[in-house]
Amino acid sequence: MLKNEINENLFFISTPLDFEKLAMAEFREKFQNYFAKAPPKTILDTGGFSFSAPLLEGLALNHLLKIPNRILLRIANFKCRDYPKLYNKICKIRWVDFITNNNIHANISATSSRLMHTKKIEKALLEGIACYFKANPPSKKAQAQTQAAGQQEIFVRIHNDDCTISINSSGENLHKRFYRQFTAEAPIRENLAAGLIYKLLSPLDKSQHYNFIDPMCGSGTSICEALFFCEINDKRPFAYRGLPIVSDKNISLANECCLAFSFSSLHGTDIQKKTVECAIKNFSLLNADGRFQNVTFQKEDLFAVNMTPPISGHNIVFVNPPYNERLQVNESNLQNYFDSIVKTVIEKFHPQRAAIIFPAEYQLPPVINYLHEKLRFKNGGIKTICHFLTMKN
After folding, report:
1. Alpha-carbon distance 124 to 108, whole Å?
2. CA 91 to CA 67: how far, in whole Å?
3. Does 117 score more than 90 pLDDT?
4. Average pLDDT of the segment spanning 340-369
5. Beta bridge partners of 78
6. Helices (H), 92-167
7. According to the model, what pLDDT value does residue 246 have?
8. pLDDT of residue 285 exceeding 80
9. What residues contact 74, with CB distance under 8 A and at least 6 apart?
10. How far apart are CA 72 and CA 15, in angstroms?
11. pTM for the whole thing?
12. Is the model more confident about 223 or about 248?
């Protein structure tokens, strides 16, 4: 297993593209909060970042972080220019720490290297693992543990003849939430919503109480993610629990988190009744213990004259409207439609901060008394921009 000079394990956190810095900020903040010490040094890369940490702390991040895709535990790294050497290197890895058989899914990629044939790389991986276990049979206890955990995913990345082998400690992608059982059309992926909400809330004064409003809430993703961001995710399985190396070790986390925001209320509305029903059902799963209060969902049209009166106080607004792509809009002029969303949000809610997602080609005009910043990303394959508006003092 790869370790640094002080015997800590090496990890790589995979993130959505364009969310690397936000995910790294979340990592640093939560690491310091939950482990009561300075976060480790991180190395930023396209699609994620790497760091070193004690094994259990690195694995525990699966329960804490909401923006990443997955957390990889680095197993080996070496130079390799031919298949026999690749096979020999794989034979020497201490596989009994991670698996006990060939019940694995191989995730292979190779670029700018002499080894480019992914099927041959996978063959070398499987045969090398079989060679190791022929000489080092696993214990019955380890076999029972890995069999119960199911298939493990091994990543092999070869770039410029440099081979890195990792194991996916997360299992299913981390954006999978236990509460997300009911979906509406064209939903935003949960970890993207988490990243945007983190950026939306981060500059705010945590001593204040805020109203979180989503007037086009869909199946309730933004409301749920705003509440879930600082919660410990212990209601879904993680692949690391099937690793023999952690079989007799316990990962325990405190339920206290000083990073959480205080919401006076959270309010989601949508024009579609069925969509609102989905949101209510998802929130009910998240709030099974009943500890989240002052959360409401209603069928309402943002543009309706008789819409519920604006919520007073410190309002924070998140909007992910239909783009006329996956979900169609009954408007002939999309520019006017998007302009009207911004105008209505500002006039009805007077938000301290707002995050509004539009297709990348839409040009947001200047909004009086608001500062404007952008984050470009892809939402369901569509090029989009999240426009962050901050009320001037």
Report:
1. 11
2. 35
3. yes
4. 95
5. 163
6. 118-135, 140-149
7. 87
8. yes
9. 1, 2, 9, 10, 11, 12, 50, 164, 165, 166
10. 11
11. 0.93
12. 223
Task: Kindly state the average pLDDT of the residues 59-70.
Answer: 96
**DSSP symbol at 288:** T
How far is the C-alpha of 192 from the C-alpha of 369, rounded, in Å? 28
Residue pair 360/376 in contact (Cβ under 8 Å)? The answer is yes
121-179 pLDDT, tens digit each = 999 999 999 999 999 988 787 777 667 667 899 999 999 999 999 999 999 999 999 88
- Output the average pLDDT for the chain: 90
Question: Domains of the chain by range and CATH?
Answer: 9-168 (3.30.2130.30), 190-391 (3.40.50.150)
Place of tokens 């952008």: 374
d(CA 172, CA 240): 11
> What are the backbone dihedrals phi and psi of residue 214, each rounded to the nearest 5 degrees, phi first?
-125, 105
What is the dihedral angle through the alpha carbons of 355, 358, 361, 367, rounded to the nearest 10 degrees?
-50
Asked if 100 contacts 138 with a C-beta cutoff of 8 angstroms, the reply is yes
Tokens of 347: 């006039």
Burial of 118 (0-12, 13-18, 19+ CB in 10 A): middle
218-240 pLDDT, tens per residue? 999 999 999 999 988 888 899 99
Q: How far apart are CA 274 and CA 270, in angstroms?
A: 9
CA distance 191 to 87: 37
Q: Counting Cβ atoms within 10 Å, is residue 41 exposed (0-12), middle (13-18) or buried (19+)? A: exposed
What contacts 106, CB < 8 A, 6 or more positions away?
122, 125, 126, 153, 154, 156
Cα distances from 297 to residues 164, 183, 213, 217, 282, in angstroms, run 47, 15, 10, 9, 11
The full DSSP string for 311-344 is PPSSEEEEE----SSSS--S-S-HHHHHHHHHHH
User: In whole angstroms, what is the distance from residue 388 CA to residue 390 CA?
Assistant: 7
114: DSSP letter: S
